[in-house]
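Quick question, first post here. What does this chain look like in 3D?
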Amino acid sequence: MGQTAGDYLAVSTGLCVCVCTAGLFGEDLLQRGYRGDRVVLAYVARHPGATTRQVAQAIRIPERRATRNLDRLADDGLLTVGSDGAGRASRSYRLAPADGEPTQTSGS
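> Answer (accepted):
Ran it through. Tokens below.
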């Protein structure tokens, strides 16, 4: 009976270690995404009107990853998206105005 209890303890401890490892791995992936967002946000702050391709080339990441970062930042309200209507590739990005800050329009 003592050996069986020890086996259950070993199995449950092993399972706990596996679950914790998976959680830490997931957290690392999430943090990596946030680090990428910060780099993209800093680039757009220095280069208002940058396109996805320009961002990707400048910070040396695939366009697909730049698109994910830019979309996430726009969804979070940190960036505004401009487009000439020609499709996703022609989108440009700028920092979103802070609350209470006047917005600029074209030609002003």
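The first helix runs from residue 2 to 46.
The first strand starts at residue 50 and ends at 51.
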